[in-house]
Amino acid sequence: MMKRKEHEKGSRSILEPIPLDLKKMARSPAKSVTHHQKEVYESRDKSPGKKLHVFLPYDMEVETLTRLPGKSLMKFLCVSKNWYSLIRSQRFVASYYAAKPSRFVAAFTNSVFGKPARLFIFSGEEEKTCSSSLVANLDMTIPSVTLPCNGYKYSSVHGFMACNDGTTFIICNPSTRQVLSFHCKAFRTSLGYDPVHDQFKALTLLTSEFDHIHNPSLIMCTHEVIRLGRGGVVVSRSSQVTSPYYLPLTVGLSINGFMYYGASVPVPNEEETPPTPVFVCFDVRNERILSFITTPKEVLVWQSYTSLIEYKGKLAVIVPNCLGCASSFDRFNLWILEDVTKHEWSKQTFELPLPLPFTRAPMGQRLISQGTNKAGEIIFSPTTLPGRAKPFYVFYFNTDTKSARRVRIHGVADTEEFWSRYGLTGICCASFSPQHADSIAFL
């Protein structure tokens, strides 16, 4: 049983906002309370001006705190050293992560040419029923960040959001409002997570396409792995990871300790032969390129417009079926990696009840998928805000019933007052991440 340091006379007790019937808790059969603990619960200091101080069993204390929002727990860190140690402990962080339901996160940056540059991050509770609207709250803003409108640049990894701003890699936690940024040696960096050692790692591809142009005989790629230590300490490895040469085509996606991203591998000494499409599989725990997963050519036909998602625990790819110069699509292919070792893929084609926009221009209107909800519905969201003070909509597609519905996300820059307050102008690059984990971990 952890003891709590007494507050000074006249200070506000942290337990006041939490109505607890301690006698009822002591009689509850679900908790084993000793006679000594019961005496502590019922003890009172009758002296004038004194406040009642109580002691809770550790399990009850953890159960109470895990019900609170992450923002409230961040305020409780300054209550006492004991509460600070408890909330920051790895055991409590894991308990909180397991107890809290996932949330959705919507993020966007101001226009590439707009000033001031800023990254806005919103989040909200996932729907419990098939509603037509959800509410998002502004969690935090990060200044001096502006991303180009050429596809989504945000990723949600075990409670943290990550994005590239040139050679600067930015990681933040919307629940704790912690922001960590550091310089990378190249432009392509992705965040991965090792669930075995509870370790975040950033992988940067150092070899670029220009290196291969200047040196056609180049046959190897070089990568740098950056370990993100606790307490905000960034530790760069002196050793580097190498692999056969490839050209990356998509952003990375972290699933169960592995990172996947689309790439093409040129055929040696055969420049006229089309390159081979593959998915690079990076083992985050052992820090090595595990394999090149061969894939049908149709999977990576859209290259950077190809959407990688986690579908029922597996790597999947959403490929919109846009014929000719069409600016929309009314069907899409769902490719699922069924067997990683055998490189076996399955394909399903779905027709949409209404066409969705898909302009190939970098700053055009386009809807992509970044994942599914708990019900398995595939969610399509815009890569840019719809316009000044206009409603922000996402589309849910049910693969079982073949039906789609439009859901409005209230609060995401949908008022004139919001645009004026932050000086938003032009086209804003946007992202929508379903099933974002609510974590109070710190890096």
TrEMBL record:
Region (Disordered): 26-45
Top-rank taxon, per record: Eukaryota
SUPFAM superfamilies documented for this protein: F-box domain
Pfam families per the UniProt record, alphabetical: F-box, FBA_3
Residues in F-box domain copies: 56-96
Biased amino acid composition, Basic and acidic residues: 36-45
NCBIfam families per UniProt: F_box_assoc_1 (TIGR01640)
Name of the protein described by the UniProt record: F-box domain-containing protein
